[in-house]
């Protein structure tokens, strides 16, 4: 029972007590008789002097004087009945007002709860380069720092489930600690890139709920309270939400790189979006390390066809087309050049996020050519 309902209950109890007190205070039968005789005498005198002005009501009323046939004992009891009738009416009006307010508040809260948190895929770049101010990552840095917030109201999120390309396991693994240190899983960069801090909290209870939800969906999973957050988590999040005040659950991809299993994982995570919990994927829509090293600055985009394919399936009005397209992505032209065989871990977070997208089409919110050669795209799913 809420506080308002409790106050109404207490008020009703007090009213009953007052009514009992009124009954105790009623005059005795002898007092009633004397009182009524005096009142009747006064009334008869008034009637004799004001006969011409007497008005007889056309309709009965609860406040109409009692007829002469009424017994003397009925007078105080009738007054008490009028008092109780009014009290009941007041209580009823107050109760219905409070009930209406609670109903309005309930459905208003429900409507807010049903606003989906987004499913978002972003490119995190090479190691810590977006944080170091690398010129070739400038466009990506600006997007993560300034543009994501135009599409996602970070402060409304209850938590973020972040699927990272830099954590591969044979079964889906979920970070479950209250706090996770950073895992600097890159090498050969300046000393300052190993001093970063990102102290966003974890959420063990949410991690356990995710595990149970995946089990219901037939997906094997396990919890890990020890592994640190890799750069697939902290590099984009330091730019997207430097305040580090939103709980994060880091989730691995599968080492088998099976697209159907990753899409199914996303479908299972979709339900959490209804609770205001976002699903982020951190990877690269193009990731070919050999080409990154030897084909920079060719003054032409090497993955245009594959990027066009991604845009077509991710923004499709047909959820089934999106699903079939991403599950069969290896068959598309340019797929093996964009993500070489057995090295598609950076593509898996996009498939998970697309699976968590629900029935709505995605929207491309970032399309940029790194080094003028490698076209990168980011996608978001927001509304039903």
Automatic annotation (TrEMBL):
Domain annotation Extradiol ring-cleavage dioxygenase class III enzyme subunit B: ranges: 147-378
Necessary cofactors: Zn(2+)
Keywords for the protein's UniProt record, in alphabetical order: Membrane, Metal-binding, Oxidoreductase, Transmembrane, Transmembrane helix, Zinc
Family: Belongs to the DODA-type extradiol aromatic ring-opening dioxygenase family.
Pfam families membership: LigB
Sequence ranges of Acidic residues compositional bias: 14-36
Superkingdom, taxonomy of origin: Eukaryota
Location of region: Disordered: 1-72
GO molecular function annotation: ferrous iron binding; oxidoreductase activity, acting on single donors with incorporation of molecular oxygen, incorporation of two atoms of oxygen; zinc ion binding
Residue stretches spanning the membrane: 87-104
Protein name: (apollo) hypothetical protein
């Amino acid at each position: 029972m809420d506080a308002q309902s409790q106050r109404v209950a207490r008020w009703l109890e007090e009213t009953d007590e007052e009514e009992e007190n009124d009954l105790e205070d009623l005059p005795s039968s002898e007092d009633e008789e004397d009182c009524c005789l005096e009142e009747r005498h006064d009334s008869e005198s008034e009637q004799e002097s004001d006969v011409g002005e007497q008005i007889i009501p056309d309709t009965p009323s609860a406040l109409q004087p009692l007829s002469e046939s009424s017994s003397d004992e009925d007078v105080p009891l009738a007054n008490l009945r009028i008092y109780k009738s009014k009290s009941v009416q007041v209580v009823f009006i107050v109760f219905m007002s409070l009930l209406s307010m609670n109903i309005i508040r309930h459905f208003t809260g429900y409507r807010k709860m049903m606003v989906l948190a987004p499913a978002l895929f972003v490119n995190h770049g090479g190691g810590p380069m977006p944080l170091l101010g690398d010129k070739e990552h400038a466009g990506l840095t600006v997007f993560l720092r300034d543009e994501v917030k135009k599409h996602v109201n970070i402060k409304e999120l209850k938590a973020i489930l972040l699927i990272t390309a830099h954590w591969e396991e044979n079964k889906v693994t979920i970070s479950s600690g209250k706090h996770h240190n950073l895992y600097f899983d890159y090498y050969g960069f300046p000393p300052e890139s190993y001093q970063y801090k990102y102290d966003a909290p974890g959420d063990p209870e949410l991690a356990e709920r995710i595990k149970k939800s995946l089990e219901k969906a037939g997906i094997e999973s396990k919890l890990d309270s020890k592994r640190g957050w890799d750069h697939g988590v902290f590099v984009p999040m330091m730019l997207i939400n430097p305040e580090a005040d939103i709980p994060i659950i880091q989730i691995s991809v599968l080492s088998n790189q099976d697209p159907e299993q990753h899409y199914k994982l996303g479908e299972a995570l979709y339900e959490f979006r209804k609770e205001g919990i976002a699903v982020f994927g951190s990877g690269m829509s193009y990731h070919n390390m050999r080409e990154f090293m030897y084909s920079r600055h060719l003054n032409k985009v090497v993955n245009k066809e594959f990027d066009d394919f991604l845009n077509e399936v991710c923004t499709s009005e047909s959820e089934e087309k999106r699903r079939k397209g991403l599950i069969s992505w290896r068959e598309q032209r340019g797929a093996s050049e964009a993500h070489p065989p057995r090295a598609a871990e950076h593509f898996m977070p996009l498939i998970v996020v697309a699976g968590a997208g629900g029935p709505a089409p995605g929207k491309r919110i970032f399309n940029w050519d790194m080094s003028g050669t490698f076209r990168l795209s980011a996608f978001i799913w927001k509304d039903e």
